[in-house]
Request: fold
Amino acid sequence: MSELMSGAKILLECLGREGVEVIFGYPGGVTLPFYDALYDNPIRHVLVRHEQNAAFAAQGYARSTGKVGVCCATSGPGATNLVTGLVDAMMDSIPIVALTGQVSTKLIGTDAFQEADTFGITRSATKHNYLVKNIKDLPAVIHEAFYIAASGRPGPVLVDVTKDVFMGNAYHEPVNAIHLPGYKVYTEGHTGQIRRAAQMMLEAERPLVYAGGGVVLGNAHEELRALVELLDVPTVCTLMGLGGLPSEHPNFISMPGMHGSYAANMAMSGADLLIALGVRFDDRVTGRLAAFAPHAKIIHVDIDPAEISKNRNADLPIVGDLKNVLPKLCASVQEIRSDTGSPERPAIKRWWKQVRDWKVEHPLEPVFSTSEIKPQHLMAEIDRISQGKAIVTTDVGQHQMWAAQLIRYNAPRLWINSGGLGSMGFGLPSAIGAQFANPDQLVFSIVGDGGFQMSLPELATLMNYGLPVKIIVMNNGYLGMVRQWQELFYNNRLCSVTLDSFPEPAQLAGAYGFKGRTVEQPAELADALREAIEYNGPYLLNVRVTPTENVYPMVPAGGAINEMVLGPVQPTSVA
Amino acid sequence: MLQIISLLMENKAGALMRVTGLLTARGYNIDSLTVARTLDPALSRMTIAVEIESHGRRQLIKQMNKLINVLQATDLTDGPSVTREIVLMRVRAVQDVRTAILKEAEIFGARILESSIDGFALEATGDIERLDELINIMRTYGDIEVTRSGAVAVSLEAKKLRLSPPIYRSEAVVSEDKNGVV
Reply:
């Protein structure tokens, strides 16, 4: 069956075949024909208030569901506004497809109105990108884009479509096979390597699972849990991996890295085997590489061969999908055990005791005060409400670290934050995407007073679509993380970090038609949060917290991760 | 040290930019780059000569292999391979050195393309170092103008080329029925 259709219709047809339910976008001149076709198409379009937020919202959708998120922008400024959202998705391996309009083929290169070299500009911002100048190429390109975005190590794909392709007509033949001869995805893992890895795991005396975003992206959380329980091994989850193992799981030791827990960082430094699963040995996790996990052999499982031995040499690399590799590792472990039996391992018992002692010595604990709301107090209250079940989105900075340290995430895809790129303004629009995908779930958007103001226009989107996102502004009146660094490393010479003139929340929210409030007294916090949650609609809760509270533990830049500053008073092990 | 990288890639708009983009993003300066169609017109073969330290090299080859348009990126620096370059050159020569120039050209196996009162136009092929030598010698005879092609290389090892088979979109077809979209 083939019928004559416009390019815009063909594009929507292909999106429908990919199961797209919602597009986050912003129309413009050259995408007019696309929006005209959208007029009577079942796919929903969410009008954001800035294209950057379309990309972030698509990410929130993708991160909370695992499905490909879709965003759309017009040519020129529309497309360039997407770039931060694309790079952000690239850094955190989030599957999104960005559709952009381009000026007509015959106008390309003439500095036409709203022309930008989107294809060139987004080359390094995407996993792959396309410029479609011929309507015949369109269906295959769209299906390739979705396949590339979602498969292997996921990532953003941009498709730039010229106006004449939108407007042209062609007989649409659905494309059922795509050809990407150079695109290799290794999913199975090498059998021999898997057996050797299992052997190493059973021989290790101080093993540690170091699990990252790959566990979440690969939907391998159950498989991870099975391995962790089979080996009974302590496990740290990176910022991107939180929820990969439930925070309440007895084997979970919390997050490692620059603001990781004492126990997690000491365990990393003390382990003799790191079982690194879907991680990239990011500098925020490893600290000074030369001093990172100095006693450990490394088993590194990742779907991306380029991650193997990129930062830290892997003693035993396995390239594959965790979803496939982890069960094979379990099977191998069981097989070896059934041959050799499971002898008593006193060394493991000593290791567990050591890890537990570290946990007790310096636990991650909220701080309370009776006179002011401590940011940690705020996170503890949110944790009490969430019980490990709510979706929490954040920006980047102090609030993000406290939310990572102190809120439990008992399932993957609840914790949504800008990890690799660290984009301010991410929290609110990503919450929009997450709430769209999960209409019945409680969604907190915890943001700082800085990042919140970067995405302010999206308050209208919340109201527009009746999205009951609970915005919790952790308001310390500063760009807190930058201020913390200026205090600690620049002699407290605070330069351009003070955020005065924060809008009055009740008035701000009221101007958009929903409710807002400020809370300053610790005694009122619980009540204010309850009000926010019970309110039927979006809610803006502005929480005035201690302005100069710092995030600890902290590994100073360039330090080894076991050289943590544990609190404001004593830099214990720092030379 | 100069590294020679050979790539087999799809002959598509933008493919070149993706490869060079990986290099420029890391601040590497490309010494030479050649690209041309292969027997299969849908594919191109590219040879890049670039200065990279050895650690960065392995990572770079992996990154190149990740590019969707690249079928195979191979590091030819250490393996058995042949690298050649072509140089086109004009030598301005006064009467008394013309014979000497012709002798040198003969030693290097260079061909005379044109001869005029002003001098000669020459063509020579060879490995990079030998052409450097030829150029240095010719300079001693007078003003020269040189155009070099950049290195082209071929591996002498049989490397298995793994191509991904077509992907059939069975799941997508299912979702199509579910949504009732034709």
